[in-house]
Amino acid sequence: MAWARNILRVNLTKGTCVNEPLNMEWAQKYLGQRGLATKYLVEETDPKVDPLSPKNKMIMATGPLTGTCASTAGRYSVITKGALTGAIACSNSGGFFGNEMKNAGFDMIIFEGKAKSPVYLLVQNDQAELVDASDYWGKSVWDTEEGIKAKHQDPLIRVASIGVSGEKGVKFACVVNDMHRAAGRSGVGTVMGSKNLKAVAIRGSLGVQVEDPESFLSAVTAGKEVLAANPVTGEGLPAMGTQVLMNVINESGALPTHNHRDSQFKGANNISAEAMAEPREGDGKPNLVTNAACFGCTIGCGRISTIERGHYTVAERPEYQIASGGLEYEAAWALGAATGVDDLDALTFANFICNEQGFDPISFGATVGAAMELYEDGSITSKETGGLEVKFGSAKALTELAELTGRGEGFGADIGLGSKRLCKKYGSPGLSMEVKGQEFPAYDARGIQGMGLGYATSNRGACHLRGYTVSSEIFGIPEKTDPLESDGKAALVKAFQDATGAVDSSGLCVFTTFGWTLDDIAPQINAACEGEWTPERLVEVGERVWNLERMYNLQAGFTAKDDTLPARLLKDATKTGPAEGKVSDLTKMLPEYYETRGWTSDGIPSNETLERISL
Amino acid sequence: MLKSLQIDPDKCTGCLQCELACSYENEGVFNPAKSRIKVFNFHEQGRQVPYTCTQCDEAWCMSACPVDAISVDAETGAKVVSDSACVGCKVCTIACPFGTINYNSSTGKVIKCDLCGGDPKCATACPTDAITYVDANWTGLDKMREWAGKTDTGAKAEA
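Output (structure tokens, whole complex):
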């Protein structure tokens, strides 16, 4: 129950689609989605594989709660070896695609090999086939999704696809479903493109069942009440979205800007949730049209936005004078603060292009920030940029580069390398703000110390979603810790990472944890799934998943030396705000973290640790 | 007192909790594909609109049914399909001007909203009150209140 107990294995080289039973022994150890799919990837692939080789596999995986009426239970993840990082990649998406996969009767779909020519997978309940995608190759995510629905005369089909950037090998391409929800990070869309797989289209009508329906409904109802009563999940996120963070983080002195040269952005308020709600001068309407929810979500943090019709980006282009997925905090930070651009309409346009052509706005914006610094110091000139002035604060540079990167053309192909490869190419590797090849998200490691340790140790490279200690360090959830203090952060980071590992394996959204602890989540999983699922057992699952990912990365060739931050964050103190004068205390926190995890001083899980967590 | 479902699309976030509750109540599984209420996403306009049977007084589906499989629930006013009588001819699906009665290929019968016998689960499940179950004679009350507030230009007490 809860699990469909069924996997679809698609061999793109041979063109075959085969059903096989889910390994239920593994499901009891790794729960589902992130954990369970990682187990499959570890068992079936060589960690040293080239991410873009046909020997790499890509897994789309749901959790046991996906498709049920638990709040936010519509998630799926894409698990593979990341094209951007060469590390384990696991990118999580909402929307409605995960639910559809589950309703078609599959816990996961494993893609192997590489198709000879572009194809898409069509799944209708237990029937699956590979279909020629030559009509859609070269088309955007938006056109592909609409085209497939029209071709099959079925508006209820759910589609996950890649845009042109994923076809062209942009290293941070996403898999986008439902027009603007994305498995966004680490280049999982690049891997999909390397397999000549354009899209996955699913219609499911088999239904999802749970083990103990009565207990499940009562646990789910209790959980929804907690989310509704919580000020973050009940009020802040529905009203302002994750953009509620923009001014808060800026005032904390932890909003990196100008490629992390500074940690407070003068234009922050112009690109904030407050600005999105303000009527525009041009048409008197606000940027924000409404909030929107993913499948089953009773929070509804999603933003639906429009661009002012007279704005230079859309004035001559009616196809973008529409409402679509608006700015989330991470995208607004990367497209705006990281680049020094505070034109809300330009950011919204760049965000539309990221969705339309399927690439990660965080890595894109951060890479543009790095390119701007390289341009200003003369390492990159207008010769390379095709005449474009790539200066900090230039909205035109941002939106032009978004379009070029979306098509993988001109200087956009360089941006599509990601900041690590770009900065190396132009002779200044130190200017790349990343860990393990993945660009930082929107929190400065100097102003929020726990996040610095989290970035350095994140298994998929720099990431806020692997252990969101901002909750504790800024918002006091579940308890307040001092963001400028590094004492005690090793244990805090571990606790967040392990809990998140369990949530990401369940089918639920990690944003529920602003309101829920594992005490709220465990009863829902326990009622839905076979076996006893206590909060303690979920922590164990999370820790097991974390170590499994770590072992994969070690075997892929990463070492303790990769658990680090750029020198800028370790040596250059912040200049303004409450965090003025701070650098990251990583060198102090990291050995404590290894010890807390039961790893050797070289960052390798000890035999006792592996035994303790049954790995 | 007769009640009816009141839908306010402005409040809908498109979460589909209504579809989950409807399918669970009627099919015993979570399965939006078998829901009697559907939420439509007008993506480019940023609108989400839940839609289901309005329980017409003179119901086309009921008039069209050749085997009298659709009857009125006297307590709720719902037009209810009798599974034992329905022969799956689908004439009602053609007759209904709104498309809210549909064929279910796994049972060979038609399905439509029956107001869950007077306790519609979609309304209970809706997290934003976009779907409510209110006095059938006063479905306009909320809108009246809103406009009444705008109409009153007299002196106001300071908050």
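The helical segments of chain B are 17-27, 60-64, 91-95, 121-125, 141-151.
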